[in-house]
Amino acid sequence: MIGLDVANQFYTEYYNTDNLDEFSNTDIFTLKYLGEETAWADIQSSAFFKKTDEELVERATVRAIDNAIAKLQRKYEPFRTITPLLTTEPEITAQIGLKEDLEGGDKYEVLEKIQDPETNITTYKRVAVIKVDKNKIWDNRFAADVEQAENQENDLGETQEINATHFKGSSKHIYPGMLIRQID
Nearest to residue 81, comparing CAs of 28, 26, 7? Predict the structure, then answer.
């Protein structure tokens, strides 16, 4: 997984550097055009919600950008979200959700970090595959918490009680902090 190797080097050598010239002049990073996506966001206004046009445009803009990024993540492997597991017992959860365009049944590989003690090189090994539980997908989109509060206040729509997406699969051999990445 070359992407993770480069990411490790980036975080180790460049993430906290004050010298941007070092980062700009390195040859470990190259850019390659992969593609583009377009997206939009449906933001509704009603008499119940006192939002200005500016607030609605801000919400629509951020969500449209998030939607375009989510499309890139599905289509191109280098854009795929890699995130740590939050819990494994009693439920397998991670703090990703609708913002990342999760759908019920999406598959994620669980990766175990392995560091060679002699070379200090980090690799990742797949130890499990888990699936998104279609009934427990967290709404982590921009301003979702505000919409939830408005819905609850006005007895409109559902309110969500979860703060992470739940996954189905065996929790054997996995633990919180292990990384997950979407697979086809």
Answer: 7
